[in-house]
Amino acid sequence: MRSVLLLVKISWRNLWRNPRGTALTALALGLGLALLLISLGLLDGGHEQTIAAGVRFGPGHVVIQAKGYQDSSSDELLLPATVVSRIKGFLQTAGMKKLVRGISPRLLATGLLSSSANSAGVRITGVIPQDEPAVSLIPERIVEGTYLRNDKPSGVVIGADLAHKLEVKIGSRVVLMTQALRQPGNETKNGAGEEMQSTLLRVSGIFRTGLQAVDANIIHLPLPAAQALLGVADGQVTQVAILLQQEGDSPGVARALRKRLTGEPVEVLTWRESIPMLAQILGLDHAFNYIMNGVILAMVGLGILNTILMRVLERRYEFGVCKALGLKPRQLAVMVVGESLALTAISLALGLALGLSVEHYFATSGLDLRWIFKAGLPPALVFDPILYSRLSSNRIGWSVSIVFAMATMISFYPALKAARTELPDALKTL
Amino acid sequence: MAVAEWAVELKDVRKTYRTGSIEVPALRGVSLQIAAGEFAATAGPSGSGKTTLLNIIGGLDRADAGEIWVAGQNLQLLSSSELAHLRLQRIGFVFQTYNLLPVLTALENAEFTLLLQGMPAHKRREKVEKLFSEIGLAGLEDRRPAELSGGQQQRVAVARAMVTEPALILADEPTANLDSATAIALLDVMEHLNRATGTTFIFSTHDPQVMERARRLIRLRDGQIARDETRDRQDAGVTAKGDAG
């Protein structure tokens, strides 16, 4: 034990024989860790924002819809009113209530919206005006007028791109035309409830999300108006979208709902299942980021290997003396590994200080990328151009462990070199 | 076994260095006995085998053939680890260029081997301080090697070699980098320690002062012992024990 302390003391002092070299190496490794922390923070923050935006422009963290809807996208597949009631009742229980931020039943269909100037294909979303804001971002993105209200049953909210195309403004009249949904019991003689339906609506609000696919296609109207237009019985909807307090609770809540709704003709999906493309894009982004970080760490690692190896080769004679005095190969290796670990400890302290400072800045002030997206975001991208870093303690621990493990492994080769110092060759004068 | 009677005994030791197809014989059948407490020097021209002989006696190099007995152990039969242990416990080294660890103070350098032996701190300090005061290093304990003169550094190296109370000290041209007065002072220190502790000293040297002070002078030539002289310094008498040349 005493000899280990001596070796540690020698290692520490050896570090400062060349303070500039030590400082530069520590800075290189520290920068590697700092870059890792910053990129992971921005990546995780960006992903969290992307998921938050994706689920709030889409079906929420968890969505319940009629069995087969995800694959067929058939608007005729509806949830029975009894199931909707059971879902609402379950989500009001004490265990679920604290996890859930909002619940919104929606009726979805496609239609044609016409003004006096133009027509456009639209995605009809019938919503309960007081429920939808707790789930969707669209009510928050109203730029003109107001969102839907129960006392204005003929109101419709449309995107800015659609308003521009139809040349309408707040208060303008528009006609929504669609096909009544084929439902058991309302088939016509021709075999289906396929007759065209239309209704006169008044534009009550215009939203702008920055997402072309949303701003040019989506319209919101009160659920009763949508049900009447589509010939759907009261209480029937396409889906129940659920927004949770924490994204991480999605699998658990979905499991609980599946269990509760066992036997019902429904499917309960997490956002990863209902928006698989988003999950895949984030997965690819993660993989790409890991590769980039791997490259950065490998470059830093090679720099450290070179430094430690040079230090060992320069001191071959000294190691020879130590060995001649009775130091065992294992003890020589411990001395070199100790030196490397001391260097790593300094580097980690530097890297943590630098990385966490920058990460804190990006977490509070954000990284503004709007200058990149001056012309607007790509249609398929659900992305907030101001990125806020989010770094969990797990990520910090993981990053520090990775860098520490890398530096330790790298020191093994120079340590082996030192341990294999050959006598009497290393002592040229003896 | 008669071998234990000698501090060092070599029997027909041979060593040849090979570089590619070139073979350079360094020792060609050296046999030698050195008794405990001797103050002996090996001398000879460059390439005569002095360094190789010291390396082999110190367990830093291995002979191709023959037997090397040091402190009752046949070095040819020991593993690298056992040789390291023997060096730590029984052999002290003094190098031509001092070879102190630059990051340690004079005291830490001197106690280096004691620490490797696992001796507690207070005992180490006590031993080193006593030795330092004996050899004129008192007050220099906290200085780094770079802050010491050549003579002081070599004294620290002697202290490092002596402090474990080894049976044998091997000194490779210890005065080569010292001026005459400093060399004499260092030899005084080593001779004093030899007489006071009975530790066996073997030098390799070109320095006439060392040869003059050695009580036994082994002259090597072409890897063989050319002359082995034992001197009685009281009356300056010389007895040639053998001439293999």
Task: Specify the structural class of chain B.
Answer: alpha/beta
Q: Widest sheet of chain A: strand order?
A: 2-3-8-5-7-6
Shape of chain B: globular
Global shape of chain A: elongated
Report the sheet with the most strands of chain A, covering strand number, pairing sense and barrel closure: 6 strands, mixed, barrel
The structure class of chain A reads alpha+beta
Tell me the total number of β-strands of chain B: 11
Oligomer: heterodimer
Percent of sequence in beta strands of chain A:
15-25%
Helix content estimate of chain B: 25-40%
How are the strands ordered across the major sheet of chain B?
6-7-8-3-9-10-11
Order of helices and strands of chain B: EEEHEEHEHHHEHEHEEE
Low-confidence segments of chain A: 188-192
Please state the CA-atom Rg of chain B, rounded to the nearest Å.
18 Å
How would you characterize the overall build of this protein?
The complex is a heterodimer of chains A (430) and B (245). Helix content of chain A is 50%, strand content 18%. Chain A has helices spanning 2-15, 19-57, 69-72, 81-91, 94-97, 160-166, 212-215, 223-230, 250-260, 271-274, 276-314, 316-324, 329-364, 393-419, and strands spanning 62-66, 100-114, 119-127, 142-145, 155-159, 173-179, 196-207, 218-222, 239-244, 266-270, 367-368, 386-387. The longest helix of chain A is centred in the N-terminal third of the chain and has 39 residues, at 19-57. In chain B, strands 6-7-8-3-9-10-11 form a 7-stranded mixed β-sheet. In chain B, strands 2-1-4-5 form a 4-stranded antiparallel β-sheet, covered by helices on one side. In chain B, strand 9 (216-221) and strand 10 form a beta hairpin. Chain B is globular, with a radius of gyration of 18 Å. The interface between A and B is medium-sized, with 26 and 34 residues.
